[in-house]
């Protein structure tokens, strides 16, 4: 950070390319944060979302956008990283097969390190506890626990620079998220939510993420720009 912008508020924003992270980025920009967008190429089968993340970061306006190659797919255990597992096409009981072990913890840890180097005290994540598919690392308790960790485990935290983990969508329904994003000017046609998209990025229309997205647009009364292969 230069001396000229030492009083500016910088934030690291996790941007996946989906509508939740796009709305989160728009919220951070609307709050006058200087945003440093961070995406991950983690071995996901839906890597097309990285192209969406780049589109969103450019459209919303960020100081910089970095995509980190951090392959966690080798450990398996998730239909999003293990091609031997099929992406479920029906709702599941409990924690679904699309849960990626420790994903948000890994992503937030990297974001925390970058924030400390930047001198930023704020990290934004699009976690949601309402339409969150049952992922344990999308709950308010988890966000609060990671914030505590951030302030215990870093030099900045120990020396008095308190980190805040912002999850502005945590209690919103998908419809509320869509209305919020639309109100902030997000072009949702730039985003990708599908867990099993086609080669051109067309959404499958049957995975859990597609169903939540489509229902969210219907409930919000907002036109859905998503090219679904099936509905």
Question: Any overview of this molecule?
Answer:
The longest helix has 16 residues. The protein has a five-stranded parallel sheet with strand order 3-2-1-4-5, with helices on both faces. Helix content is 35%, strand content 11%. It has a single domain, classed as 3-Layer(aba) Sandwich (Rossmann fold). It is of the alpha/beta class. The model has no long low-confidence stretch (mean pLDDT 92).
Any chance you could write out the topology, listing elements then pairs?
Elements: E1 10-14, H1 19-30, E2 34-41, H2 48-60, E3 64-69, H3 103-118, E4 122-124, H4 140-152, H5 155-158, E5 164-166, H6 174-183, H7 208-220
Parallel strand pairs: 1-2, 1-4, 2-3, 4-5
Ranges with pLDDT <50 over ≥5 residues? none
Number of extended strands: 5
Helix fraction bin: 25-40%
Beta-strand share of residues? 5-15%
Described by its quaternary structure, the protein is single chain
| CATH superfamily membership | HUPs
Count the DSSP helices.
Answer: 7
CATH topology: Rossmann fold
Structural class: alpha/beta
The global form is: globular
CATH architecture grouping = 3-Layer(aba) Sandwich
Topology pattern, helix = H, strand = E: EHEHEHEHHEHH
The level-1 CATH class: Alpha Beta
Tell me the strand order in the biggest sheet.
Answer: 3-2-1-4-5
């Amino acid at each position: 950070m230069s001396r000229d912008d030492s009083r500016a508020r910088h934030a690291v924003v996790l941007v996946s390319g989906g509508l939740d992270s796009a709305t989160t980025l728009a919220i951070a920009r609307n709050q006058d944060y200087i945003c440093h967008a961070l995406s991950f190429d983690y071995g996901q089968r839906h890597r097309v979302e990285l192209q969406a993340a780049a589109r969103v970061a450019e459209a919303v306006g960020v100081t910089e956008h970095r995509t980190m190659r951090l392959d966690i797919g080798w450990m398996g255990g998730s239909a999003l990283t293990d091609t031997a597992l099929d992406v479920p096409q029906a709702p599941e009981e409990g924690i679904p097969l699309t849960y990626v072990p420790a994903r948000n913890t890994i992503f937030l840890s990297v974001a925390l390190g970058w924030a400390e180097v930047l001198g930023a005290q704020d990290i934004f994540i699009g976690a949601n506890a309402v339409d969150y598919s049952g992922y344990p690392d999308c709950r308010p308790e988890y966000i609060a626990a990671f914030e505590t960790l951030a302030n215990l485990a870093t030099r900045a935290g120990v020396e008095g620079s308190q980190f805040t983990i912002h999850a502005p969508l945590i209690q919103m329904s998908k419809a509320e998220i869509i209305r919020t994003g639309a109100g902030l000017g997000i072009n949702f046609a730039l985003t990708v939510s599908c867990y099993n998209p086609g080669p051109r990025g067309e959404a499958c229309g049957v995975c859990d993420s597609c169903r939540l997205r489509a229902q969210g647009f219907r409930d919000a009364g907002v036109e859905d720009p998503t090219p679904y292969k099936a509905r």
